[in-house]
Amino acid sequence: MSEPDPDARPVRRFVDPAYVPRCATLGEVRAGIDAIDRELVDLIARRARLVKDATRFKRDAAQAAAPARQAEVFARVRAHARGRHADAFPDLPDLVEATWRTMVAGFVAREQALLAATEPATGAVVPTDPAGADAPAGAVGDARAATPGTRADRPDDHPDDRADDRPDDLEPR
Predict the structure, then answer these.
(1) Are 58 and 111 in contact (CB under 8 A)?
(2) Per CATH, domain 26-114 is 1.10.3210.10
(3) Domain ranges of the chain
(4) SS3 sequence of the chain
(5) CB of 118 within 8 A of CB of 124?
(6) Radius of gyration of the chain from Cα atoms?
(7) Cα–Cα distance, 51 to 102 (Å, whole number)
(8) Which of 39, 45, 79, 137 has the most CB atoms within 10 Å of its CB?
(9) What pLDDT digit, counting tens, does each position of 3-22 carry?
(10) Integer angstrom CA distances of residue 160 from 15, 39, 56, 114, 149
(11) Is the dihedral of CA 31, 35, 38, 44 positive or negative?
(12) CB of 83 within 8 A of CB of 96?
């Protein structure tokens, strides 16, 4: 069987009388999907920069995995798909959750690898013994103070990010 002709008229129709076609040809559908794919890649890149920044706040691979945070994110995106887009596509919440689980697994693996490119921050508290007693690392200082490379000295992380874009309730950290 060959691929469908992108310029041909539809060969099927939905029996639901409430269904409203979005495009006249498969070519229009594909162009719309391609545009959305570009937007998704841009959003995933923005998310990746935030995940990379989140690495600075994690002590080890277990903290990078953050299973409780993952569960919150999966529940939140599933509820968003169910509540706001319930009629968009059959079983959309399942599809959204599966997509997020795959994406987050990839980000967690990369974040765990990124930990090797970090070192304890000046004034950070790190475990000093297996029992978990904490002590300041490096020079003593206020860990809340701005350090080079933080948002306090650089309001825009990346030229592709608009200054008014901030993580919302769907952005896993």
Answers:
(1) yes
(2) no
(3) 26-114
(4) CCCCCCCCCCCCCCCCCCCCCCCCCHHHHHHHHHHHHHHHHHHHHHHHHHHHHHHHHCCCHHHHHCHHHHHHHHHHHHHHHHHHCCCCCCCHHHHHHHHHHHHHHHHHHHHHHHHHHCCCCCCCEEECCCCCCEEECCCCCCCCCCCCCCCCCCCCCCCCCCCCCCCCCCCCC
(5) no
(6) 22
(7) 15
(8) 137
(9) 999 999 999 999 999 999 99
(10) 43, 12, 21, 22, 17
(11) negative
(12) no
pLDDT digits (tens, 9 = 90+) for 36-92: 999 999 999 999 999 999 999 999 999 999 999 999 999 999 999 999 898 889 999
Q: What is the pTM of this model?
A: 0.70
25, two tokens? 């040809």
Angle at the Cα of 169 (from 163 to 170), degrees rounded to 5?
Answer: 90
Backbone angles phi and psi of 139, in degrees to 5:
-70, 150
